[in-house]
Amino acid sequence: MTKFFLGFWFGIFGILSLAFSANDLWAAGDGDGITGEVFWQIISFVLLLFLLTYFLKNPVRTFLKNRREGIKNSLEQSAKKEEESQKEFENWEDKFNLLRQEVADLHQKISQEGKVERKRIIARAEEEGDRIRQQAQVVAEQEVKKARAALRKEMVDLSVELAEKLLKEATQPQDQGRLVREYIGRMKEFR
Amino acid sequence: MSSLTLARKYARALIEIGLQERNYEALGKDLEKMADLIKANKELKAVLLSPAYPVVARKAITKVVTEVLGLHKSTIDFIDLLIERERMDHFSEISRSYESLCDAVSRRIRATLVTAMGFPPELVRAIKSQLESSTGKEVILSVEEDPSLIGGVLTRIGNVIYDGSLETQLAKVKENLYKE
């Protein structure tokens, strides 16, 4: 830092030397040269520079140092964050790939299960259809049997009723005598 | 005690007396006569069965009636006993039980011949003879007519029926036709 200030002051003197040299040049020409007013302005300026340098040296130095360290830290943090972000990105990318795979697997599984379920439903529907058909057939057969039985019963009832009527009309005392004799004949079996 | 049990108890007591006196058949006839009279005469029945009339009065009435009917002394005593014990309402049942006991003692049975229409008496006798031969007992046969039998006859002995009627044969035919 000392070197810097030395350099700075050398620079100031250099500029002033150049200014005086230039004044000489102007004086050598048609110029009027540096007047006293200008000279004092230069001196004021230099003095201002000196005072500024003297009072602002440490704060500016600290500020710059802090600024440098801040930027360095920011850069480091940025690099760290970038690295973390990269890792996070990779992590999420892995998760995303995994999810995509899971989704694909799930889709495939659902598709297969759907096929199996469809087959099962179709099989069950066919089975149910067969059962209903068989049941309907049994019911129909039973109904036919019932109808036949009812018809037969009616026929028998009518036939027997007719036979009874005919017998009542046709049975004569001689028939009764014959029936009683047959009955007496069968009485031996009554023991 | 049921009416039947009670009637049997009294009938058994009377027949034991009849067996000792060797006149159980006559006592049975006495009971039958008295039962018929009570059945036919509602006023007499009302008096004998009602506890509202004094026992002495009922016994006096019975004495007159039994003398008119010519009943045996044992029967009269038996009826007096029934009046004393207020059992005259079971008289007809006692009479029937006595008849059954008499039949059992005399080795005879009662049968009913049911016929669709009348037929010659010799066939009735043949049936009676056949029944006696089958059961080994004397048979008292009563004949009833029932046109619903269509033709033929049936004999009922107690709870047993020997059926030779056309009605039953038709019923069997009907049953067989149903089964076929």
Describe this structure in words.
The complex is a heterodimer of chains A (191) and B (180). Chain A has 3 helices and no strands. With 191 residues, chain A is mainly α. Chain A has a domain of 91 residues. The longest helix of chain B has 19 residues. Helix content of chain B is 64%, strand content 16%. In chain B, helix 1 packs across helix 2. With 180 residues, chain B is α+β, with helices and mostly antiparallel strands. The model of chain B has no long low-confidence stretch (mean pLDDT 93). Chain B has a 4-stranded mixed beta sheet, with helices on both faces. Chains A and B meet through helix 2 and helix 3 of A and helix 7 and helix 8 of B.
| Tally of helical runs of chain B | 8
State the oligomer: heterodimer
Q: Report strand order across the widest sheet of chain B.
A: 2-1-3-4
3D shape of chain B: elongated
Would you identify the regions of chain B where 5 or more consecutive residues have pLDDT less than 50? none
Structural class of chain A: mainly alpha
Please state the overall shape of chain A, judged from the principal axes of the Cα atoms: rod-shaped
Count of helical stretches of chain A: 3
Going by CATH, what is the homologous superfamily of the largest domain in chain B? N-terminal domain of the delta subunit of the F1F0-ATP synthase
Mean pLDDT of chain A: 86
Describe the sheet with the most strands of chain B. Answer: 4 strands, mixed
| N-to-C series of helices and strands of chain B | HHHHHHEHEEEH
Determine the structural class of chain B based on helices, strands and strand pairing. alpha+beta
CATH fold group of the largest domain in chain B: Peroxidase, domain 1
Q: What is the C-level CATH assignment of the largest domain in chain B?
A: Mainly Alpha
Mean pLDDT of chain B: 93
Largest two-chain interface: A-B, 26 and 25 residues
> First CA to last CA of chain B: what distance?
51 Å
What would you report as the Rg of chain A, rounded to the nearest angstrom?
66 Å
Separation of termini of chain A?
A: 156 Å
Structure summary, number of beta strands of chain A = 0
